[in-house]
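hey
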């Protein structure tokens, strides 16, 4: 009996995963996760939260991230990458982000990312330990991208 192709899931990329994907640093993730990201992009099921643009710009400003080009043109190009849709921060997402009591992080962007993934019923692709632990509680769908 032939095996069925793996079902494509909705994926929201954590900021660091988005940067790695755009910068071609996919070796920082497991190969099967990279393949799943590519399938999601081809199927129109790949998302990036608008808060990630803010987070990238803040990391560059603080000197904690260096990109292949200036941040404004990087974000402009990354926003229009084929297969990925940018999800705006909405009032319901902002409100949900404040009620994630079991999410043990001091990073407000992580809260917005978790709430955005929940709003989309998407899996958050991340290497971030607090988000993965929160996912293990059943309150967030996650994909562990750690190699």
């Amino acid at each position: 009996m032939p095996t069925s192709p793996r079902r494509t899931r909705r994926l929201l990329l954590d900021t660091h995963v988005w940067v790695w994907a755009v910068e071609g640093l996919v070796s920082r993730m497991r190969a099967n996760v990279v393949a799943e990201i590519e399938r999601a992009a081809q199927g129109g099921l790949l998302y990036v939260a608008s808060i990630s643009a803010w987070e990238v710009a803040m990391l560059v400003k603080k000197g904690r991230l260096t990109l292949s080009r200036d941040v404004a043109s990087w974000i402009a190009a990354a926003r229009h990458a084929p297969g990925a849709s940018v999800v705006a921060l909405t009032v319901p997402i902002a409100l949900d982000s404040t009620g994630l009591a079991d999410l043990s992080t001091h990073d407000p962007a992580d809260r917005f990312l978790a709430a955005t993934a929940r709003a989309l019923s998407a899996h958050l692709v991340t290497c971030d330990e607090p988000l993965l632990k929160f996912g293990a509680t059943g309150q967030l769908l996650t994909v562990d991208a750690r190699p």
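The beta strands are 11-13, 46-49, 84-87, 123-126, 142-144. The CA atoms of residues 123 and 136 lie 12 Å apart.
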